[in-house]
Amino acid sequence: MATTADFKNGMCLDIDGNYFFIVEFLHVKPGKGPAFVRTKLKNVKTGRVLDKTWNSGVKVNEVRIERRPYQYLYKDDMGYNFMHTETFEQVALPGESIDGVQFLKEGDICEAMVHAASETILTCEMPTSVVLEITYTEPGIKGDTATNTLKPATLETGAEIRVPLFCNIGDKVRVDTRDGSYVERIKE
């Protein structure tokens, strides 16, 4: 058991049988009345974010979560298959529990959040950015670097993003997996 004084970002709580991560929290001490804690909680299964206010000092059920590295192997009808990099144990996960699944390619290392007591994987997080090759886009024209105009591009994983006009087929680009935005072109 923990109290609201123990809250920190990334902490996992068990509320009515559902697991929630604390996205952000704020201790508030108004001039009149008791202190309270405002939190934003992210549901582990659905990904929905909700606001919840707690009275200061309330006891909550903390869930112990471990972060473990898993390597993506392949996708089949069971889901996305991963292998633990140290024990070589394989596990299949549904696409809904993986953040940024459209940018996942074979061999990528992801961090899985594992419930320590039951050894079940709750979610899987991609690295914040990945390098992928552009497989299709309209050809760029020399000198198209002065404006911030973007064009659609298809990546090697099948995902579509918007890239600057000077990017061509075969270029490698860094993509932010949190929002799917173009970061930079990688020069070799």
TrEMBL record:
Segments forming a coiled coil: none
Pfam family, one: Elong-fact-P_C
GO cellular component: cytosol
PROSITE patterns (alphabetical): EFP
Superkingdom of the organism of origin: Bacteria
Domain Translation elongation factor P/YeiP central: 67-122
Molecular function GO labels: translation elongation factor activity
InterPro entries named among the record's database cross-references: Elong-fact-P_C, NA-bd_OB-fold, Rib_uL2_dom2, Transl_elong_fac_P/YeiP, Transl_elong_KOW-like, Transl_elong_P/YeiP_cen, Transl_elong_P/YeiP_CS, Transl_elongation_fac_P
Domain Elongation factor P C-terminal: 130-185
Main subcellular location of this protein, as a coarse class: cytoplasm
GO BP: peptide biosynthetic process
Similarity field: Belongs to the elongation factor P family.
Role played: Involved in peptide bond synthesis. Stimulates efficient translation and peptide-bond synthesis on native or reconstituted 70S ribosomes in vitro. Probably functions indirectly by altering the affinity of the ribosome for aminoacyl-tRNA, thus increasing their reactivity as acceptors for peptidyl transferase.
HAMAP family: EF_P
NCBIfam families tied to this protein: efp (TIGR00038), PRK00529.1 (NF001810)
This protein's name: Elongation factor P
